Amino acid sequence: MTGPERPAKVLLVDDRKDNLLALEAILQGLPVQTVGADSGEDALKHLLVDDFALILLDAQMPTMDGFETARHIKRRERTRHVPIIFLTAADRDSHLALRGYAAGAVDYLTKPFDPWVLRAKVSVFVELWTKTQQLAAQSDLVKVRDGELRAVGVAVDEAVALLKAGLAAGGEVGGSQVEKAIAALSRIR
């Protein structure tokens, strides 16, 4: 489900609490639920139990940096398709941006960044996630309907066979076959 029942979740990963609060403030008002993680390890734990539309990941953190965290995320089947936007306070070093893209990032923003640009990027990825969820739900519905139609086809085939047998047999046996055919057709209603 999408919409109010299941809002898109965005994982915010930064070792500094003030940065997490700033990101939450920037995203306030968007149709997202933010989840904060203060380390790469903490982010990986969240990814074990929740599905996320997007990850905003600090590139430079102690112990496990953002690049290593991204590599772990992209190795897992369940999380490899979750888009990652790297955020970093590092100088505009193109080598770091290349490392981010090599680790699986879809974008790389250097602080200070325009909060409206980040909101716009998050909105696009959340919309893509929402559309993907809707398509998955429609696909599931089509599978259910396909199964129902197959069951109807089987019941109709069974009823036709019983009616043909009833016509061929005639008499009391034929009446029994017709009753079974009616019962088969009644089941598919």
Written description of the protein model:
The radius of gyration is 28 Å and the shape is rod-shaped. It contains six helices and five strands. The protein starts with 7 loop residues before the first strand and ends with a helix. The chain has helices at 17-27, 40-49, 66-75, 94-102, 115-169, 171-187, and strands at 8-13, 32-37, 54-58, 84-88, 107-110. The chain has a five-stranded parallel beta sheet, with helices on both faces. The modification 4-aspartylphosphate is found at residue 58. Residues 9-126 form the Response regulatory domain. This is Two-component system response regulator. Keywords: Phosphoprotein.
Q: What labels would you give this structure?
A:
189 residues; alpha/beta; five-stranded parallel β-sheet; Bact_response_regulator; Two-component system response regulator; Sig_transdc_resp-reg_receiver; phosphoprotein
The average pLDDT score comes to 86
Q: Stretches where pLDDT falls below 50 for ≥5 residues?
A: none
Number of helices: 6
The SSE string, one letter per element, is EHEHEHEHEHH
Task: Please state the CA-atom Rg, rounded to the nearest Å.
Answer: 28 Å
Protein name: Two-component system response regulator
Organism: Dactylosporangium cerinum
Keywords: Phosphoprotein
